[in-house]
Amino acid sequence: MKKLISVALAAAMTAAMAAPAMADGVDLTFFNSKMEIDDALKEEAAAYSEEFGVNMTDDYSSDTIAAHMATVYASGNPYVLSMVDAKDIYSMAPDHGLDLSGEDWVDKTTQAISIDGKVYGFPLCVEARGLIYNKTAIEDITGEEFKPEDYATREAFQGLIDKLKEGGMETPTGVMNEDWSLAGHYLPEVYETRDDVQGFVDQLYAGTADLANDERFNDLMDTFDILKENNYAKDEALTAAREDTEMMLAEGDIAFMFGGNWDWAVMNEYDPEGEYGMMPVPQENDTYNKMMVGGGSKYIFIDNTVSEEQQQAGKDFLNWLVNDEEGQDFLVNKCALVPAFTNNTLEVADPLGQSVKAYADANALVGNYNYLPDDHYSKCGAFFQKYLADEIDRAELAADVENYWKNTTPVTSSAEAATEGATE
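Predicted structure:
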């Protein structure tokens, strides 16, 4: 009997800790920078407001985060909660963020961002980048079971591409042309997949890196060339719509696309019953062809100038996401996200998220580089788009990227990076 009472008390205490206090009339403004979950977030904000008495509103913007947030802070009316990228936490949180070091959820994740010993960034989810594949489409053509680990090297991957073409799939790949995909996701793997990431970036800033002769750059670009050469939209590489590429992959018209588990939000609208997954980018490096790049993705910080009631309402919402069953369900099932917190044991529903979780559980994720300059996407993305369209060659791409870095003010250095990062 005592044991039953203890269990009941423990459950009640956990529920009380997870449930936010009623906060009638408190405006809880939320900036969302993740398009894929905006509809779900707006719906949840209305339900959360009704249940807990706050006035929660969701504001989405397709502008670059840095530009949007600069406008918001210039107006003097900041959001209570802002969802931004990791690099934005480093640039904004020391001035605008509330120290969240004492929050319950800090000990339940390894992905929170801390700066100078203070936790500012709440990790919304874990995401990763790699090749998305349509297992059903591949097996229908080859007549063989598709095991992604069999195609880790570029030679093996090229062989599979050739087999798919011989079997009638004329163009087995799709390449997204957005600057954030090319220069925010693919190109950074050149920086991220090496022993001393910040040291290499320091060389880029100093103008001493030699990308044209860099092993990692050429390894990854050789693979990109296979994707580019076999792209269904090769003749209209810069105008093909992202949604069309995701649709073609889901419907089996193509077999591979470089992307991330966030692409499931579109793919599942077409053939959610198909078999899909994610794999590392095929390459000749026998370490990195077994690992995807990923980690905490999208971070929330609480503004340090809003009222104490708003700050508390913001804290309550974050704790609700971590500890409340409804909050956990919202992240995993309604938003199709991979949770960043160990106490959320809900099974990830979508196949891309399942792949990411499997790599994360196996400690096979290479960490994201979180200090890209704000204009890296747009500037280097423009160079990469020219390469995708065959307007420049690889040597010119390398030179353009090198010139960008050596003419950019460093965001951080090796010494500074050592004082920052995810909590352990």
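Summary: The radius of gyration is 22 Å.
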